[in-house]
Amino acid sequence: MAIGAALVTGGAIVTLLPSANAADEKTPDQIMRMCQRSAVLNGKQQSVRDFGGAFADGFESDNCDFVETKFETFDGPTEKSSIDFPNCEPNATDPAKVSITWSATAAQGQGKYTVTQQGAGGGLFGFLSGSWLKHKGTLDMTVKSATAGATEQREVPVGKVLHMDFTPKIQRMTGEWRVRIDADPGSFAVNPSPEQNFVAPDVVEGPVILPGAAGAPGVADGTSKAVLEDC
Questions:
Q1: 129: which DSSP letter?
Q2: What is the predicted pLDDT for the residue at 224?
Q3: Strand pairing of 219-220 and 145-156?
Q4: Could you tell me where the DSSP H helices lie in 22-71?
Q5: Percent of the chain at pLDDT above 90?
Q6: 87 pLDDT exceeds 90?
Q7: What is the pLDDT of residue 229?
Q8: Dihedral class, residue 61 (left if φ above 0, else alpha if ψ from -120 to 50, else beta)
Q9: How many C-beta neighbours within 10 Å does residue 19 have?
Q10: Positive or negative CA dihedral for 106, 121, 199, 32?
Q11: Confidence band (pLDDT; 50, 70, 90) for 82?
């Protein structure tokens, strides 16, 4: 997988608020479907056409919001970002001067659930952009990846092989999709029902981005390093 690409996977614990019996329990994917088909999604009033439904389908919940609970930055995995430049000739006596070009790609994560992975503003994934972009230097979620690279002049000592490594800076946003079904006071033919709340946790990772020059796309932030190994 490309540098920095990381979808945080694994099972999710689904939290139900307030008291709900076993019949009310939902899987994360069921909760995400209810969120996508909510009457109000992240403060925006929806129509059934927004999620491809027909008029008769109606909404599956009254409200859904993404609530960020944690944001962190850390070093991603270091990967080799150039070819090898050897200075291994048997009669070599001087360092070899080389022009070394390196390039690395850092990919955008797209959340844990199928419905959030539609990307490019589609599905629920597009609604994460507002939370994601409030953090300085974060890749726009409509962009799938960012690159870093340069051409550098280096010297390779005799008996050594040089290559470049790149360690990207990664950001991780942890949060919850909170779905609510309003209480129903009931009527002559319908029993009353209490408010129901469901929570599906989500985690998204992506590279830290530096501004591009002269309107060019931003480049992935990180640290490049020359590595020398024996022939």
A1: H
A2: 93
A3: unpaired
A4: 28-36
A5: 35
A6: yes
A7: 95
A8: beta
A9: 8
A10: negative
A11: very high
- What's the rounded Cα separation, in Å, for the pair 17 and 100? 57
pLDDT at 5 over 90: no
Range with lowest mean pLDDT among 63-72, 183-192, 216-225: 183-192
Output the six-digit token pair for 194: 């209490």
Strands 61-75 and 38-41 come out as parallel
Are 231 and 158 a contacting pair, CB within 8 Å?
no
Q: Give the phi and the psi of residue 215 in degrees, each rounded to 5.
A: 80, 0
End-to-end CA distance of the chain, in Å?
28
Contact 12, 28 (CB under 8 A): yes
Specify the pLDDT at position 15.
39
> Alpha-carbon distance 36 to 72, whole Å?
27
Distance CA 141, CA 120 (A): 7
Q: How many residues does the chain have?
A: 231
* Alpha helices for the chain (secondary structure H): 28-36, 129-133
- 40's tokens: 């109000």
Torsional class of 91: left (φ above 0), alpha (ψ -120 to 50), beta (otherwise): alpha
Closest of 223, 183, 228 to residue 78, by C-alpha: 223
Residue written as tokens 């209810």? 34
